[in-house]
Design goal:
The chain has a single domain, classed as Rieske [2Fe-2S] iron-sulphur domain (Rieske Iron-sulfur Protein), CATH 2.102.10.10. It contains 3 helices and 11 strands; from the N terminus they run H-E-E-H-E-E-E-H-E-E-E-E-E-E. It has 197 residues and is α+β, with helices and mostly antiparallel strands. The strands form 3 sheets. A 4-stranded mixed beta sheet has the order 1-3-11-10, with no helix packed on it. The structure holds FE2/S2 (inorganic) cluster (FES). FE2/S2 (inorganic) cluster binds next to loops.
């Protein structure tokens, strides 16, 4: 009897492990070169996915897919975090009061660990995927651009924490999904039950 129970438990653990995808596709600031696809089963179940951040260089972005949506992880440099302060006066919802994120991401960095920004890459206007425009004063956006994300569909702009600028069509900041750090360089998206990094 106890052996049957143990076998059943082992099967359950094996299934749970199989449903957790492991990914590690690293991008530079140039996005959309490729994306990780979870298994069809994991996709159907909306299972949490694990992302390996060990090869993500400072200033770079990694893109994966979770529940059919792009998830970005940006490894922000100290300079990028300073850019957040410059953007704050121009933001519609700087404290993320009208935006969607877990409680632990309701801060300026919108993150558990300010170095790593985890966010859904979906514009809160009509759902296009914005472009990363990390460099301040990027003339393809504007001369006074503080760095962030730009949605070319209708011109919405977001800072490096995904906070929306005033005067654009998007009504809210980019959405931060639930996530947790399994180790310093391994994050699980879709579950926020473990500790912050
Ligand atoms: S969908 Fe992004 S600005 Fe319209």
């Amino acid at each position: 009897m106890s052996e049957e129970v143990d076998l059943g438990r082992r099967r359950l653990l094996t299934t749970a492990t199989a449903l957790t995808g492991a990914v590690g596709v690293v991008f530079t600031a140039t996005p959309f070169l490729a994306s990780w696809k979870p298994s069809a089963r994991a996709k159907a179940m909306g299972a949490p996915i694990e992302i390996d951040l060990s090869k993500l260089e400072p200033g770079s972005m990694l893109k994966v897919e979770w529940r059919g949506k792009p998830v970005w992880v940006v490894r922000r440099t100290p300079e990028m975090l300073k850019q957040l302060e410059q953007a704050t006066p121009f933001l519609l919802d700087p404290k993320s009061e009208g935006s969607v994120q877990p409680e632990y991401a309701k801060n300026e960095a919108r993150a558990r660990n300010p170095e790593y920004f985890v966010v859904l890459g979906v514009c809160t206007h009509l759902g296009c995927s914005p472009l990363p425009k990390f460099d301040a004063a990027d003339v393809t956006v504007s001369a006074d651009w503080p760095g962030g994300f730009y949605c070319p569909c209708h011109g919405s702009k977001f800072d490096l924490s995904g906070r929306v600028f005033k005067g654009v069509p998007a009504p809210a900041n980019l959405t931060v999904p639930p996530y947790s750090f399994l180790t310093d360089t391994r994050v699980m998206v879709g579950s926020d039950t473990s500790q912050s990094a």
